[in-house]
Amino acid sequence: MSDITPETAAPRSPWGLWATLGWVILAFFLSAIAGLVVVLIWRPDAITGGTEMLMDGPLISITTIASAVVQVGTLVLAAGLARWPAGEYLGLVRPATRPALIAIAILVVFLLGYDALTYLLGRDVVTPFQVDTYRTARDAGMLPLFWFALVIAAPVAEEIVFRGFLFRG
Question: pTM of the entire structure?
Answer without folding.
Answer: 0.81
